[in-house]
Fold this sequence. Notes:
The chain has strands at 2-4, 9-10, 13-14, 21-23, 33-40, 44-50, 60-68, 75-78, 87-90, 101-110, 113-114, 121-124, 133-140, 144-150, 164-166, 174-177, 186-190. By secondary structure, it is mainly β. Strands 7, 8, 10, 11 and 12 form a five-stranded antiparallel beta sheet that branches. It has a three-stranded antiparallel beta sheet with strand order 5-6-9, with no helix packed on it.
Amino acid sequence: EFFYRVSTINPSGTSTVSSTASDTTFGATEPPTGLVATSIIGAEIKLDWVAPTDNNGGAITGYKIERSTDGTNYSVLVADTGSVAVTYTDGVSNTLTTGTTYYYRISAINDYGTSTPSTPANAIASDVPAQVTNLTADAVAGKVIDLVWTAPNNGGSAITGYKVERSTDGTNYSDLVASTGNQAVTYSDIN
Length: 191
């Protein structure tokens, strides 16, 4: 809030000051800060941000969410959330393409307008990979069983390894190797 008073000036001098008037400035709010985009299972991306500390005289009523696949050309994903919640999950009511990097920016809305956009954040839409197919087991000399399989759809993120389990009764399995640590589609079990 700012307070004002005015005096009149002429060649003979300055008058006494007027009565006081005051008012509070207003305008579009400052942009949100701390935007984080996090990839979650199901090819969804969760957005979290921090509400602006300066709303320029008008309470925040919602947020505008924009999305891009190149980090330059943004389109409006949500024109106005109509909520003061500082989180949003993309991919729930629409489908994201796994393996695609999505860029986001958020603007705050109050009764006086929409802020400039936040600093962008991005994440890759990904999901749990599909199961391997065409698994075969072939015994070779020397008490070795060679496993071979076909790599599955990676769910949008590079495969970093395979978990191999073994059983002696076909029911109770235990980890033979927690992760192969590579993309090879073969494994040799030396008994």
